[in-house]
Amino acid sequence: MKALLIDDERLARQELKSLLAPYPEIQVVGEANNAETAIESIKNLKPDVIFLDIQMPGKNGFELLEEISGLPEVVFVTAYDEYAIRAFEVNALDYLLKPVQPNRLAETVKKILNRDASVSQEQKEQTQPLNDNDQVFVKDGEKCWFVKLSDVRLFESEGNYVRVHFEKNRPLILRSLNNLDERLNNRTFFRASRKHIINLKWVEGIENWFNGGLMVKLRGGEQVEISRRQAAKLKDMMSL
Which of 87, 91, 94, 77 is nearest to 31 (CA)? Predict the structure, then answer.
């Protein structure tokens, strides 16, 4: 797996690189000391996982994530523990506190490799593209549905699960949002954020939002915030 280290402190990057050296499965392909350099490196190197500091000059780690699409797995590495809840909200794979302890990093590497194996198997089993008129099987506990994709207005990531919004139902399925994003028709389903894919045919209204973003209201009542970068992508995609 390809890894990118993002931290404004050179010594912190060197230490983490040294701690990762015993794991040949993790190949450090690059380093970045700020968000702008990191965005360009992610675009060019296409890492599978990024080890991301939060407090950096300019954009912080969370702001960086709002600027990228085709998102890799994220492991936060920070000296501050007060961001842990927010890290979970953006679906981070793990959260490491500095100074990073070798045994704790070993747990993270195990998560990364298990996640990679799970995604690889998922991709083998489900690689066919899906059309709007396709019906998909959804199972949550004892309840089952055959759902037409055109009736799904929102996919919402919750940890390793995705909540599917259709009619009055909100079942959870064991899938990754990244995998769904690759299979869905991108003229109908738009990746609004790390946590959301919206069905554009269900959009009821759009408002300008903070920092150049958009707030989208769906006909089912849900409201989804679109980051500035994704908002620009949406405007470009939908313009004449």
Answer: 77
